[in-house]
Amino acid sequence: MIAVVTTLMGFLAAFVTLFFGLRGSKFFLKYEKAGYLEIFKAYYMFTLVFSLFCVFLALVAMGENSQAWLFRMAVFFFMNSTFYVLASAYAIMNVASKSGLS
Question: pTM for the whole thing?
Answer without folding.
Answer: 0.67
